[in-house]
Each structure stands twice: as C-alpha cells, then as structure tokens.
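dumping the sequnces here before i forget
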Amino acid sequence: MLQAKETMTDGQYAIGVDVGGTHTDLIMATPSALIRSKAFTTHGNYSEGILRAIGLAAEQVGKSTEEVLTNCRAFVNGSTIVTNAITELRGAKVGVLITRGFKDTFRLAGGARTREYDDQLQVPPPEVVARDCIVEIAERVDSSGSVIVAPDVEELRVGARALKANGVEAVAVCFLWSFQNPANELLAKEVLTEEFPEAFVTLSHATHPVIGEFPRFMTAVFNCLSHRATTRYIEGLRSELGRAGFAGAMTFFQGIGGSIGIDAVEETPITLMQSGPAGGVMGARQIAEKLGIRNVLVGDMGGTSFDTAVLADLTPTVAREAAFGAYRTGINILDIVSVGAGGGSLAWLDGRGVPQVGPHSAGSEPGPACYGRGGTRPAVTDANVILGLIDPDNYLKGAYKLDVNAARNAVDAEIGRPLGWSTERAAAAIYDLAVIEMANALRMVSVERGYHPRDFTFFSYGGGLGLFAVEICRRLGCPNIIVPDNCSAFSAYGVLTADYVRQYNRTVNWALDDPSQAGQVNAALDEMLAQACADALSENIDADALEIERRGDFRFLGQVHEVSQPIPDGPLTATNASELAAAFPAVYEANYGEGTAWDGSPVVLVNISVKAVFRREKPAGREQEPISDAAPPEPVAVRRIFQPFLREQTDVPVYAEADVPPGTTLHGPCIVDVGDTTLYVPSGATCARDRYFNFSLTLNG
Amino acid sequence: MDMMTKDEFDIIDVEVHQKSIRNIASEMAVTLMRTSGSPVVTDAKDFSTSILDHKVEQLGFAGHVTFHVSTAVAGVEAVLRNTRIEDIAPGDGFICNDPHTSGAIHQGDVGIVMPFFAQGEIVGWGYVNAHLLDVGGSAVSGFAAGAFDNYSEALAFPAVRVIREGRIDEQWQRFISNNVRMAGTVINDIRSMIAANNVGSRRIAAMIDEIGLDRFRQLNEQGKCLSEKAMRDIISRLPDGTYDSSDWVEYDGRGIEGLHEIRVRLLVRGDEMTLQFRGGPQVNCFINGAWPAVVGQSWTTILAQLAYDIPVNAGIWRPITFDLGPSGTLVNSVAPAPVTMSHIQTGMRVNKLLADVFSQACSLSEDPVIASRVASQSAQDQTYFTAFGMDRRNGQPTVAFPMSVGMSTGGPAQTNSDGMEVYAAQCMSGCDMPDVELEETSQPGMILWRRVAQDTGGAGVTRGGLGVDTAMAILHCDRMNGGAYTNTALIPPRGSVGGFPGAAGYWKQWRKTNLVELLDRHVFADIDTIAGEVPQTTATVTDFEVVRGDIYHVIHGGGGGLGDPLRRDPGMVARDVSDGFVSADMARDIYGVILDAKGAANTAATAARRSEIRKARIGDTPRAAVAEDAPLFAPLKVDQGHWRCTACGEDLGRSRGNWRDNAVATEAEVSVRFAALHSQVRHRKDGDPVMMREYYCPGCASSLSVDIALDSSPPTAAPRIGEYDPYPDNLILNS
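..and the predicted 3d for all of it:
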C-alpha cells in the first residue's frame, strides 16, 4: 500500500504513547515541560484509549485535544499489538508456500522439548499456521546457493489460488536456502502478485536473510501474523488523529529500540515485537546519559511481570533470534528478561511446603484479594497492603479503595496458617520472595553476563517497583538507585525520546584466513548501507545525518554460537581480516576463561550487521536548581508499617512528592507518595531529589 | 541430619540458595553450549552440568541429559579413588568416560571433573559431561556395533588427570589428537567443558566469599533436606505394593535376532521405594547396561514422571534404593562387557520399564495429582547411523552423525495431551532438532524430506506422539563407513491403561539410486521420483557402508497411547485425519470413528462402529455399558479385595491374583496384528515370536491393557497392592 509521505510540521508538541495490555500511558512534550497521562487501553479500537489519554494531557495544559494535535509535530507509538498477536497466536490468517517435503516444519518446531523435566509440559506446540493453509512447492536450492529445481509457475499458481480460496490474508514464502539464492522466492512473489494481489506477502529471505530455516520461516510467518493488527492500528489511528487535526510525523517504536516510519512498519510489522518494554530501556538510557551514568540495570514492575535489562556503558544487549514459546525466530530485540513477579503475581506453597511467588497472576480480573473483586488468593499487592506499604484508602490517587481484611484472609489461608506464621510474617515472606525473584532476574542479566551489580545504577520504574527497589538492590549489592521522574509512564517517555534506528543483518560466512572473500563481504556491506540510506531518505532523514554502526558475529570455525564485535569502517581488507582474527581469541577468553580459545582454529565472520541511527532532538523534562541545605519537608502523615527486612513494626513519616523539591534529602524509614506510585525508603537508605526531579536512592554501608 | 528448626526465614534463605546453585549450574551449561562446536551439544543438548559438595553429594544439576544425575556422583567418586585429595590443585581436571571404572554412561559421553577451591580447600566439584563427536575406537562416536569386548570399543579413561592449571596437558593432547576422528572438534569441546567448570568455580568461590563456608555448607544441607522431604512425600502418595514389568533388549548385528529380557520390580513401602533390576548374563555386544546407565536412566523417568518440580540434589536419592542384583548381568555388567550402547539399549529399556510400573502405581492412587501422572511409554527409538569418510570437496576427513535423524521420535501420551513429535529420548530434555540448513552444512549430504509419519502414534484417549519420516542423501563423500542402529525394531512402545502400542521405528538404505542424476537433471527428488535398490538388512548393521547417491531413509516410531481409543473424542480423531496424522483406516479400525464427506466425525456411524468393535473384542455383545463418568486413565481399581473394571464395575477376581485371568484375552503375533491395525513393527523371523496380548473387560469390552511379550512369557504380572515381595538378591534371568 502506498502511503502519502508524512509532512513535518513545526508544532510545539510531541507525544509518545505506550499502549499496554491494561493501560495506555502517554507522555507529551511541551516547550517547557513533560506532561503525563494514563487511560485504560481499549482493545478492539486502540485509538479510543489513545485519544482519551491525549485529552487528559491536553486538559493539563489548558487546551483541547484538537489544539494539541494540530500543533503536534511527532507522534510516536509504543504498542503491545504485535506482542499480543504473537504471544496469543491471534492475527491475520496466514498461508505458507514451502519447499516440498517440509510442510511439517511448523509442527515439528525445530524440536519443541523444553528444559523442564516434567513430561506433561512436553506436548505439541500450538498451531501457528492451519495445516490446510500450507502448500508445498517442488523447488530446491542447495547449500552452495545453486538452484537445483526452479518452481513450476503453474504449481505456484495453483498454490496461490488454493490459499486464496482458504481465506488466507497474508502469505509467507518459506524456501530452503533462499538467503543464499532468493530466485525461487522472488518467482513465487511474482506469481502471488498476479494471482493473489490483495495478499500481504513476506519472503523469508527478505525479513531475515540468515542461515537456519526454522527461525527464518517463523520470522516470515510471524510477520504475516502481525500484519492485520498493525494495519488496523495504523489505519484507525491515522484517520482518528487526522480527523482531530494531526498532520505531524507518525512513527513506531521497535523492539530493538528506536523508531521507524509507517512504510517500514507496514512491510515488517514484526519489528514492533516487545515495543513497549524496549521503550523503558531506551528511556533509562536517555536519563542516564544526562546524569553521566554509564552502567545501568533497569527494572520495570507491572501487574503480571517484572522486566529487566542491562546497559553496560550505555549499550543495551540485544537478544538475537528471540524465541516465543516453542518458536525460535530471527528477530533481534533488546534483551529483556521477564519473570512472573508483578503486583498481581500469586503466592502459593509448593509440594515441599516452601512459599513461592508467581508466575501465575491474579490479572486485572479478579485481581489481588484486596481489590475486593472476588479474588481469594494472595497476590504481591496484598502483601504490600498488609505491610502498610500501600495506603488502602489512597491507592492510585484514591481511584480504588482496597480491602485490607480480604488481603489478610487470603494471606492467612494460603501461607500463614499452613506454616503457623502471623499474617505480617507471611506477608513479609511474600514480599521477600518477590524481591528474590526480581533480584534473580537482575542477576541473570548482570552477573551471568559477567557484570557485577555494584558497578551499576539501578533504574526503577513502573507502578509497583518503588516499594521494592531498595530491597532488591540490597540483595544484589548494588548501592545506587534512580527512580526517574515520570516513572509510572516511563516506557512512553522512552518511546517519545526515541531515535530513528534500523538494523540490517546478513550471513556472509567469511573464514578470515581466506582474504579472497573480502570482495563479497564488502559488496554485501555496500548493499546494506545503500539500503539504510534509501530507507532513511524515505523518512526524510538525510543519509549524512545517520550514525552507522557495523558489527560482525565471529566464531571459531566449527562453533555454532558467535561473539559479536564491531568491525572497522571502510572496505574490509586482508589486513583487517588478520587483525580481527588475531584479536578474537582474547575477546573470546575474556568471556569464557583462559585456555578456552580454540587455538589453531580459523576465525569466521559469520554475520554482518549494519545499524543506522538518526539522533532525534530530545524534549527537555522539567529542571530546577537544587535548593542547598533544603529543610526536611513536613510529612503529610505518619503510618505504621512492618518493615520486611528488619521484621519489625515501625511508625514512618509519609511525604507528598510535591513537598520534596530538588535538593531535598530524606532518610529512611519513610514513604514518598508520588500519586500514581509509592516509594518505600527503608531504614539505612536515603532518598535525594536531583535537579531533574529524579529520586536518587542510596543504600548506606 | 535433623531438619533445622522450622524458622520461616531459614526456609526462604534455603530456597534462595538452592536457586543460586541451580543458576550457577545453568550458567555452566550456557557456557558449554555457547562455546561448543558440536551440534551434538548445541542442538541435541547432549550434555549436562553438575555441582557437588566436598562430600561428593549433589548440590545442583542443570541436565539437559537427565541420566547424568548418576554419572556426576560416580565420576567424582572415581577421581577420589584414583588420586589423593592432597594432590589435587586448582585448575586440575580429570577425564571420566568409562562405564566400568569412572562412572560414565558410555564412552562417548565424556565427563570432565574439576575441583572448586575456596579459602585454600576443596569445597566442591564441577562435573561437566558432553557427548563428544568421537572417542576413537572401532566406530564413530563410540557406537561400536561390532565390538565383542570393551577394549575394542573406544578409548576409555578411568578418571585420569589430563588438565593442569586450566589447560589440557600438551602430551595428552598430542596422544588424543592421534587417536580420534575430528580431533579439532574433540579437543575444542574439552576446552568448552573447562570453560564451563571455570564459570562454576568462580561463582561458587564468590558465593562463599559472600556468605562464608559454614553458612554455605549449612544451606546445602538444608536444601538437601527439603528435596528429600518432597521426594518422600511423592512416594508416600503411591499405593504401597509390588509392581512388575519386563522388556527386551534387542541386538541382531551378527544376524541372529537376539532379544534379552530385563525386568524391574518396584517396591513401595511408606515414603520409600526400591527399584530392583534383573537381567540375564551380560552379552558380548554393545547393549549391556552398567550401574551408571541403569541408575541414571532411572532418574530420567523419576524426574519426568514423578519428581519434576523438586530441585535435584542429594536429598532426592535418600528415600530410593537401587538394587541391580548380581554383577555380570545385562543390567549390572562388568569388564570386559562392551557398553557403548549402554544408555540407549539397556538404558532406554529402563525408561520404558519405569514408565510402566509408575503408571501402574499412579493409576491406582487416590491422590488426583499422582493419578494424573499416568503416561505411556515413549518411542525411545534411536534409529540413526554414524559414518566416517573423506569430503570430496576439500579432501578432509568428515563424520556423518545427523542428529535430526536420530531424535525425530514420538513422545509419550499424557493425561493432559497427546504426545509430542521430536520428543527424542526421554533423557534429552530441551533438545532441539537441527535445521535442515545446518544439517546440510555440517553433514556430507542433503535432507530430502522431513515429514510427520502417519499412524505411528499409539492409539488411546490421548494419542502417542508421532515419529518423523526423513531421508538424507550422501553427496559429499564417495564412500563412508560406520554403523547403523535401531534399538526398538521388534518390541514397540506400549501404551498404558488400555492404550495401544505405538509403531516401531525402522530404516532402509537406498542403494544404486538415480539421485545424482535427478539433481543433475534438475528434477525434484522425492519418494515418487527416486529409484534404487533397497536391500533387506538387519536392524543393527555393524559394517554399514554408504556411497555417493545412497539414501538413508528412516521412519521413526511413535509413543504409546493412553486409555481406551474407543473413548477418544471423535472430533479429535477427525482432526487427526484431516491433519494427516492418522489415516481414515486407523480411525475406523482402532478408534471406531467414521468420517463424513467433509471429514467430520459422523456421530451415528461412529457409535455403531464403536459398538461393533466392542463386540469383536469379546466375541459377543457386551452385557454392560461404559459409565459416562468412568475415569479415562484408570481402567481398574481394587475394591473390597477384588479387581474391578471402573467402566462397568465388573468383578475381575481377587486382588491378590492377576485380573488378566478373568479378562477376555486375545493374542496375535505382533507384526501380524500391527498390519491389521495399520501400524508397523519388524517381524521376528527366528526364535520365540513377539506377541501382542489384548485384555478386555468381559462386561463392557473396555480395553484394560495391551501387553507386548514373547510367546513363551507368562502373562504380565498385575500389581500386588499392600504386598512387599522383593526379588532374591541372586536372581539372574535366563539368557
């Protein structure tokens, strides 16, 4: 579908949204401030919730929705639509043309055995393409890229018609070795264009030109699956925002971090996978850069899960070939580890009588027991209410009144009574276990990748994490915590401040001891660069303004997994090759220990990637010169809480966020009420507010 | 040791500690996987990592391959038998790959043991095990199908030090490089195992720095207690009693179709259980089991079926006794018994035996969770080949060991689901099937197809997982030599609680084919265009030879079914037919489902067909109907001292006797019966025939059990609830 090019306007507003499963968060940049708002997500017609959030933000600056949108220069979308389509396997009806002999590829799923020992979990994966929508084509390319059998055009026609007759909306063309020689897939595309022009078509070599057919095919299939939801989302939003006067640039935030335009999204909607959580990671990066912090651990606690990622030297790690359930793909997204420890995660006793938290969640219906909507099983939020960390009368600015007794009953029944513990001790145990789950997830992204948390600053955001951040960091030995301004809508902030980012990958398999292949690799690099420039231009970005990063995946000949390294600029030469090969063993041993490099094995450059980044201007948040020697504010209340770490009841002051200007330092134990979220500063921790209104928490000793 | 005082924060500290140990073991596994160059490790996940304490008790285990629960302990014990602990320094590493002396499963699975030091003493051990691409000897990767004794099988290291200061000893490296095929890959995998142990060593040392050695040890002990308690709790929910099962290990590599019986007896008493294994005298081919394989594979099934959510540590060993009977038998062999298929032949029979006895016990349990753990036998079919030759493209030596071919077997039917495809073997948790493009990169040939094999899954309320039909053509070598293997050609996997057996796997070699010509002429090569000769061979071929253009073609077996197939939802059967997983013939003849023109189940015709099948089962119109709420996965119960059919209440005799004596029994040679049921198993030409024995309720004609046994075997024993009747210690079965 052809799109009219977005026209850039000089409007004074820019808007970022994060359309999540429950809430649509919004951050709007005005010339002087960042405004945040929140509305319920409206599944079915997302524009509705988005417009409501815009309306709430407009109200705060005394404007109408139309006034804001007419003066809006950029609208950036972070959205869960593709994540939902893929995790729920609900989307466009997908058809597949596949090499004859291999129609069962999706059923076999590259082997769906999981690591769990439980045989009842070793079951066939859910169906992702209906079996009557998979058509085999007699075609074959071999491992050297030679066409052994070209597809018969008539067979392709029959296949295309069959898919059309079955009501397919999108077709993935999945031929073996197509990344080596795309001729057969291209021929299929030609026939599809003639026979079935209305179908959305994805060629496996086009979305992921990398060896390994299962992840490549799955990428194409998931791209097709995501197509309908994305198209509807875009069409709905364009027309409704357009009707309200929006004429700015609409872009979309990708799971790799960074945004792209509508044309690119319509071609490869799959890049929106994990769009929202990636927004938070990139937002943390922005703030950290501003604060001069180089090493960052991020944590985002929502209702059902806790997401975490690491940025060493401000560089997020990337999960290559991300898997969704049994399905491995070729998608590169920010490496975000998710564990089932959110506010709604349920506590239970396992077969050994040991309390556990998650991964099952009370969800939003019935929700934690304290919501009073019929939930009877204890959730993490129930424990927080019992401990006094959440004010039951003032939850989410008083939007809900929480039922403390329901929380106590649920905790008693599931944990307290079976173990003979008091309600508070049981609640403290639930709190602790949530802390442990989150700390373990943070260990996974830090310690297990060779980083020590003590060298990192923890960025804590999302509605519920302020109650846990200090205790998590106590377990990790990570002394510094930032709770950024706007932490409750932080992913939207990250989405709004996103740069333009596109990444291109290619398999080259260059054994570095053979300089004769350099030409081929350089040709591939040139093609990828040209593509990067053309794509940027189509979004009105000048090629000269692009930052280009070139990386290579290296391994010793015979290995299967690679170690990623930057590759030098300019055409690669034999000298480059021998330098890269000579440097590789040290890089490798830094990862895996001395004596482990494969002495004597040639080094292979397996894949090359080109990442093109255009740095967009960042909206300024609020800023205020810190007051030196600020007097401690007056608490708005004193509350009795049970401090989980100390296992004791304490009366603690509660401060209102507005009473804590930059320059103020608070000493734990205390609680800071931020309206849509709460900070718990335990004994032994201090909480200062910096010039950008971020809270900076420090664990003493 | 005593349970600690029940302070809640201790329990949680223990849990945190347990998770940390497990994380470290997992990190060791990730390191191995990331650094290895062998698809055996990276895709098939044929490796494991363990952490043990100074007492050589398990602390944590990150199996992919679960049978290494046993080899980790045995490997470190072997190190300490051979080397004084004072003589072991940081960075030392020992190699263990001999079932007879260093606790290995088979010679191809190489364990590297390294000490973990902290505060100047040995505080624990790392054990990393990986299946190496080769270990020398008469066949690739140690699968010495023709060997008569262990000396002619492969190199076998009795826990010797070959690593010092974290580096492979140069002299030894030279020796090993001169004795294995693909020396580079083998040496590099050993380096990867060192890297994995390095990670474990660093992490454990850091942990002890943080919490202190005393606390580390205290938490370890408490963790073992928690796992022990959980294991005891599970056992106590199995009905006390004596449960029996038999299976037969196959070998026809010398032209005689040998079937060697092995038996298990499960004795449950309170919160403890004993597993007694007995077999005939050890034999002179590579199928013998030894302690590591028999005990290790026992752990595989215990973990998969019963103890799936208990942290693996020494605690789970405490309530279980393994009794392997006299030494020198098939289940407890000693040198010079050849053992390179120990884990696959005798070992994978152990999985089938235990699936059977555990399912018998589970089906009689009143605990709903335990009752739901009934499962059929998985295919456990390892039909594959290995071969060695020279790559015609570069003149370099190359090995064929296509992992995707070996692992594409059907899984066991579960009470919650049909079995899965590409289940591989039960012990191979987390294994992936290598992509065609990766196989065509590392293997000297081309994968021609990879299809689900229709009708291979055993029929039942839930169906066994299906096998895969796949073929690889040899293209890049003019000639390759090696071995071809099948372990379940004659004895198919059984169903459970009235479910039917799955198909057995088989293979064929297409010779003198037109394949190269087809490729040259740009004609698509598929089953309908390939021509060639398919000679009859034994299931195991000791002198396997392939030449360029030959095709290795395998149709893998499926898992057994669970429950009476006449009670499978007709809609699911119709779906299976339209998906191509089950033929309309099998739907009609085993499931009793008749499809209409659109492929949906015809309700009236199906009901009529199912009545017809019931009548045929017992030779008469059933006098009782199946109760609507009759349990699907527990056809029998003991009620007031009698066996009863749970579908109609029929009395099947005193519970001290065998209910089979009072059931309607039909018996036929298994390959004949399978042909009528549209399934497949090899016909045994010589010796005692293999029989399929079906037992039906005389009242309602429900399927109670479908047994597989030799013609001369007595009827399969029934459980004896409340009885504790161990085998004699000195029992040796007839050969």
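Residues 213-243 of chain A form the longest helix (31 residues).
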